[in-house]
Amino acid sequence: MPKTPKEKIGSIVATPDLATYCPDLATWPASWCGEERDVIPGEQIVAVFTPFLLTLLAQGLTRKTRNLHRDNLWLLGGEIIRDINDTPKLRKRPVGELIREAIANDEGPLIHGGFSEQEQRSFDSTCTKLNRFLATHAHTNLKSAMANIALVFVYWLFRVIPISTAVGKRKRVRPKAPTWGAVGKSRTA
């Protein structure tokens, strides 16, 4: 039986990996940071977003829709980091809790920067999907969250530092033969 166009699209969409779908994911924390100390919460935000991004890939959405959700997640991360900078006591709270608070009631925070109502609705739609995803995956324990952070770090490490630099090339250095006496004198045994 030949595949229908929808089945073909689903099989094509399932094949790309996260690096293809979101090649700059490792740079998101640096793009959000206002201060150096914002990088760590940014990496934790990416660790929470990563399983959701993988789920979006598996759902068979069109490229335009997936890219829209991806871009909206980037905006959400930036808004959360902005909130952390505006309210310093938020730094002490777990990032997962800040994300759930930001997307509570199935809508996201108001986007700074004069976005249109249509863009805000799109952003709220992504926040709704993320909120439902987090609610259904609430059983995810700390161990898997830490594994996600480790994966993001390893991904970042090998994207930023070339493998030859990371591994390091050792040179064998032979010790020089000792010199005996002054220059021009022969060595006697």
Q: What does this protein look like?
A:
This protein has one domain (5-167). It is built from nine helices and no strands. The chain has helices spanning 5-13, 18-21, 28-32, 39-58, 63-86, 95-102, 117-136, 142-160, 163-167. Helix 4 (39-58) runs antiparallel to helix 5 (63-86), helix 4 crosses helix 8 (142-160) and helix 5 crosses helix 7.
Core attributes:
189 residues; mainly alpha; 60% helix; globular; disordered N terminus
Rounded mean pLDDT score: 77
Q: Mind summarizing the main beta sheet?
A: none
Q: Roughly how many Å is the radius of gyration?
A: 25 Å
Strand content: under 5%
Order of helices and strands: HHHHHHHHH
Domain count: the total is: 1
Q: How helical, in percent, are the residues?
A: 55-70%
Structural class: mainly alpha
Indicate the low-confidence ranges by residue numbers: 1-15
Question: How many β strands by DSSP?
Answer: 0
Distance between the termini: 91 Å
SSE arrangement:
Elements: H1 5-13, H2 18-21, H3 28-32, H4 39-58, H5 63-86, H6 95-102, H7 117-136, H8 142-160, H9 163-167
Helix pairs in contact: 4-5, 4-8, 5-7
